[in-house]
Design a protein that fits this description.
Strand content: 15-25%
Mean pLDDT: 79
Radius of gyration: 37 Å
CATH architecture of the largest domain: 3-Layer(aba) Sandwich
Shape: flat
Largest sheet: 10 strands, antiparallel
Number of strands: 21
Distance between the termini: 59 Å
Low-confidence stretches: 1-18, 470-544
Structural class: alpha+beta
Number of helices: 18
CATH topology of the largest domain: Rossmann fold
Helix content: 40-55%
């Protein structure tokens, strides 16, 4: 026997005990009078009606159809008028249309094409505006409009997340495509859109099935089969409250009881009692629940692993419960752990004042260091950064890795400038050989184009000197080496090491940083500038360079797709992990001060970042060093290893200029 519940939850029953009915108006047109015939529209509409009456709680007397010659403009409007007169406020209605559609670009309007419509004559077309107007006039609990036609997406004008509660009214649309033509499918079969709906409805075994689940399945199914893009939304200016349309299976009590006994779980017996409160197996179900409940409660208690859970279990089953001894031992351990945490928290609270003062001192040191670094007072900046590093505690920003990087930048700049200044002094004394030695030491720290030019200039001067009389040349060399002997060459300093840390709670993409600009001293090491170098004839010997990776990365980028790479093949990562959809559309604004601003629908956040060549250092939980695969002024692709409980995954992020 069928269950007594109609469409919707028990809350849809009014004070008199009367529940709402389920209605279906289905329209299918294959044999048009003057339009190209279709193959499967009527079959799709009929199959949809059949699955609702055979498997779900839709009665045949509440199914209304308009097929082929019946589906004129007048009859469609009259059918909607009849539905308005028939429907009660607790009733639910599905309107299913399968046929031709038309879109007028000039007036931005979509249409259904009835059987009697003429091409290039809109007088018999049924506009979206008229459809929505009549749907809004229907007083129902839920109305679901399903449209399988070309350009059907023009009906979808507003989206809103569903509330998974059918007590709230819903006015919802599911269309087979956006502003696009859609497939009719092979003759004698179903369209891809209809096939997706029917497949899910036929294979469902859950007692109730919400519309959101169907819509999600159909979108993935249709895109895979036909590369169409089904869309859904809420009807504009309607009585929609964001509720949910739910299909209930037409179930037989005997079959349900057999399935419940086979599953032999408390939740299944409870579902049986809820579905058949006066059923003949209710007493047996309660006995089964009493036998199984302790094991399931204990299993749930262990999963939650809380003091309250163990206390509840002990209070219910002491002293003879199967797991009482184990529960008491675990409860004692949890209480001991809680006391230790409380003690640690008290110690932290006692030091909070000291920490606050240290934080203020730390912030002031960092502020002074950044200011000195910007003013190119590198030795003073290095001293301040070191003092800030000594005062750093977990949770302080910027991170310890950033401070170490800045100290290394200062050290590297100081060493570079020392060699560079010594080289300039030797150059002014016309001691070209010694100048070359200093400039070469500078190049070991930074491969700078200006320094390379100065080396070339010194080499040319030395060649010119060899062409002069030997006596003059010898005296020049004597003066040069004599001058050099008073200034010993400084030792080469250790190269910079960039550390990478994990300091972000959200699992987000936080990457890319400042790199040493190889084009000249104007962009050397995060903003250090040196004056332009001239040769003896006052000619500027600096040369223009192409934009670097750092130059190309500046500005805003938007995430378009995320793939996972396996055996050299890219797969859609968001299909495997829905949480990654939060990153689709996220915007990253890269700034030259080493900060990237992340903007999503949840807000914005500033992150520190760094890049060394094509190696990306990621400061996000689970991510490690990756690679910039490609970047130009419009597109960016990078690959990052991500580690979680299941192993290491190579994620490929594709971004476009925003």
């Amino acid at each position: 026997m069928a269950t007594q519940r109609s469409f919707g939850r028990q809350q849809s029953i009014d004070a008199t005990g009367k529940s709402g009915k389920n209605y279906l108006l289905t329209i299918g047109i294959d044999t048009y009078r003057q339009w190209q015939p279709l193959s499967n529209a009527v079959k799709d509409a009929q199959d949809f009606a059949d699955v609702l009456t055979s498997q779900y709680q839709f009665e045949k007397e509440n199914i209304f159809t308009l097929f082929n010659e019946q589906a004129t403009e007048t009859n469609i409007y009259q059918a909607l008028r009849d539905m308005k007169r028939r429907l009660e406020p607790l009733d639910n209605l599905i309107v299913y249309y399968s046929g031709h559609g038309h879109y007028d670009d000039e007036f931005d309007e979509g249409y259904w094409i009835p059987v009697n419509a003429k091409p290039n004559d809109e007088s018999n077309f049924i506009s979206n505006a008229n459809i929505v107007k009549r749907i809004n006039a229907l007083d129902t609990q839920h109305t679901l409009l399903i449209v399988d036609s070309c350009f059907s997406g023009s009906l979808v004008v507003r989206k809103r997340n569903a509330i998974p509660d059918e007590r709230f009214k819903s006015r919802r649309i599911l269309a087979s495509g956006r502003h696009e033509t859609v497939s009719d499918g092979k003759k004698g079969e179903n369209s891809p859109f209809s096939a997706g709906i029917l497949t899910y409805l036929r294979k469902n075994t859950s007692p109730k099935l919400d519309a959101t689940s169907i819509i999600k399945f159909v979108k993935d199914y249709v895109f895979t089969q036909a590369k169409q893009h089904p869309v859904d939304g809420r009807i504009q200016n309607s009585a929609d409250e964001g509720g949910e349309f739910v299909f209930y299976l037409r179930r037989d009590e005997e079959a349900v009881w057999q399935e419940v006994c086979q599953a032999d779980k408390v939740v299944e017996y409870r579902n049986y009692i809820a579905g058949f409160p006066a059923g003949k197996y209710v007493a047996a179900a309660n006995r089964k629940i009493n036998l199984l409940e302790e094991d399931e409660i204990w299993s749930s208690t262990k999963i939650n692993d809380t003091e309250l859970g163990y206390e509840d279990y002990i209070s219910k089953y002491a002293p003879s419960g199967k797991y009482v001894t184990e529960a008491k031992e675990r409860l004692s351990k949890l209480k001991e752990n809680r006391k230790e945490r409380q003690k640690a928290q008290q110690e932290i609270a006692a030091r909070e004042s000291e920490r606050t003062q240290l934080r203020q001192s730390f912030d002031e040191l960092v502020k002074n260091a950044e200011s000195l670094f910007g003013d190119r007072k590198l030795e003073e900046a290095r001293s301040k950064y070191r003092a800030a590093l000594q005062a750093h505690l977990p949770g302080f920003a910027p991170t310890q890795e950033y401070l170490e990087e800045q100290i290394n930048l200062c050290q590297s700049n100081i060493a570079f400038l020392g060699h560079y200044e010594n080289g300039k002094a030797a150059l002014q004394q016309e001691n070209y050989r010694l100048a070359i030695e200093y400039f070469q030491e500078a190049l070991k720290i930074n491969n700078n184009a200006k320094v390379e030019k100065l080396i070339t200039h010194c080499q040319q001067q030395m060649q010119n000197s060899r062409r002069k009389p030997s006596s003059g040349s010898g005296r020049a060399q004597t003066r040069s080496f004599s001058g050099a002997s008073t200034t010993p060459a400084p030792k080469r300093r250790i190269g910079m090491w960039i550390g990478v840390g994990v300091a972000v709670s959200l699992v987000l993409l936080l990457v890319i940083g400042a790199v040493i600009n190889e084009a000249g001293l104007d962009d050397y090491n995060n903003g250090y500038n040196e004056t332009t170098i001239y040769d003896d004839n006052q000619q500027n010997i600096s040369t223009p360079t192409n934009p670097t990776t750092a130059d190309l990365l500046m500005g805003s980028w938007q995430v378009s797709t995320i793939n996972v790479i396996r055996d050299g093949v890219a797969y859609n990562a968001t299909a495997e992990d829905q949480s990654l959809l939060l990153l689709i559309g996220a915007v990253y604004n890269f700034q030259s001060n080493g900060v990237v601003t992340l903007s999503t629908e949840f807000g914005s956040e500033n992150i520190y970042y760094s890049l060394n060549g094509n190696n990306i250092y990621v400061q996000a939980q689970g991510y490690s060093t990756g690679v910039v695969n490609y970047v130009d002024r419009q597109t960016l692709q990078l690959t990052l290893p991500f580690t979680n409980y299941y192993g290491v995954h190579m994620l490929q992020f594709n971004l476009v200029r925003y």
